[in-house]
Amino acid sequence: MDATIIKTIGELIQDSRRSLNMTITQLSELSGVPRGTISRIENCEVKRPEFSSVHPLAMTLNIPFETLVDYYAEIEKRAETLLSMFQTTVRQCKDIDLIRKVATKYLESPNEDSLDLTEKLYQQINSIEDNSIKLSLYNLIIDYSRSHGIMPYIAKGLYQQYLIERYDLSRLKETYYNGKYILNYADFLSQQERIELYYKLGIQAYNLKLYHESIEHCKKVLALHSAESPYKVNALWVLRDANFALGKYEESELYSLQYKQFNYPNSQEHTVFMEALYNAVKGNTDKAIKELRAFLVTCSDTFILGATRHLLQLYLKQKNFDEAKALIESSRINSSILDKENPLTYYGYGEYQRILGEYFSAIGDIDNSINHLMEGLMCFSKIKDVNKEKECLNTIIHIHIKNNIPMMGQTLENLRNYLMEDE
Questions:
Q1: Whole-prediction pTM value?
Q2: Which residues are CB-neighbours of 59 under 8 A, at least 6 positions away?
Q3: Which of 208, 153, 199 is nearest to 176 (CA)?
Q4: CA distance 402 to 419
Q5: Fewer Cβ in 10 A, N or C end of the chain?
Q6: CA-to-CA distance for 19 and 202, rounded, in angstroms?
Q7: Cα separation of 121 and 17, whole Å?
Q8: Residue 234 included in any domain
Q9: How many other C-beta atoms can be found within 10 angstroms of the C-beta atom of residue 287?
Q10: DSSP structure class, residue 34
Q11: Residues 10-22: what's their mean pLDDT?
């Protein structure tokens, strides 16, 4: 808005009203604002008319919301009014720059305590649904807090950013290290926030196969949180599974004993499932197969993928292709299980597809083998699991070389799409 053309809000309202050939009485009736209030605003008898009074006038006169907010952001200095404007702006539009402009103006309110301003704005952000707006505002709080030495809100802003960004599967490693950086400010977080941060870092480190770091984070959860809670119970299963992944089976079983004491959703099923896996790694293959087969009959959908792929792998280890075929044909697994916010589902489904590729290669069905390996490759690509990507890709190339098959047609097209997506 050009301030040399419209110098006051009164002139803006009056000029807009007259351009529509509308009387003050008509504007009052349509907007619900008293006639006398409109008259005082237009005659500049009110030096700083309340935003709450002018907003319905602007809506009635079809004055762009952005124009009104821009104007008030320039002239308004009262924190309470600016906070109300911020709330209205968040409700009315999705313009991140405009919302951030009002929030910045609010933080610059003179004669107000910086900590109070920051705390009130922080409390407002949580109710916003749009994550891109939330991230921008948390970034504003971080920058403002750094410049004003408000350590608790540097910590809280970084923490909230991490909670949002950690769900971006394409940036798992980057957001994990961003989360670790927050540990430098952990003393400024509440105990509950610290527990949640260590737990989420533990989960993310596990997803990234940083098992030693995962164990370290989850041990902190147990140290900070002695009472029974979902965080403690889930930290125990991460400690169990991370030690299992490292081949530390005795440590894993010790955590499993603690985990099975709690009657949480899926905990009993998880315990039964792990007992079968312990037997498998101890060489009790037949017993493990028997347990997994029985488990698949009764288990919930949560465990079907894991139980199926481990059982299939054991059948392939025994070269029992008849049982493997029966298992595959009776399987209810499909890509609908993929959860864009849970990298474990991409890893599990990718592994299942890779094992299917192994099975079909073993029985000589090359086309099916390559198709499943490609699907596994794409799953691993989603979560940036480079080692598993390479494993699938190398297997595809090896199959072509071993069988003297030129890489062409759909396989070549799929690989081209994969490489383009990876870029």
A1: 0.84
A2: 31, 65
A3: 208
A4: 23
A5: C
A6: 62
A7: 35
A8: no
A9: 14
A10: -
A11: 90
Helix intervals (H) in 299-365: 301-317, 321-330, 343-362
Given pLDDT bands bounded at 50, 70 and 90, which one contains residue 420? low
Mean pLDDT, to the nearest integer, of 65-70?
Answer: 86
pLDDT of residue 402: 85
pLDDT beyond 50 at 1: no
CATH code: domain of residue 56: 1.10.260.40
| Range 320-329, long-range pairs (CB < 8 A, 24+ positions) | 321/359, 321/362, 321/363, 324/359, 325/363, 328/356, 328/359
Average pLDDT, the chain: 90
Whether the Cβ atoms of residue 163 and residue 200 lie closer than 8 Å to each other: yes
How many structural domains is the chain composed of?
Answer: 1
Within-domain flag for 374: no
pLDDT at residue 410 is higher than 70? no
Structural domain that includes position 2 = 1-75
Q: Torsion angle, CA of 294/300/306/310, rounded to 10 degrees?
A: 10
- Rounded Cα distance between 348 and 343, Å, is 9
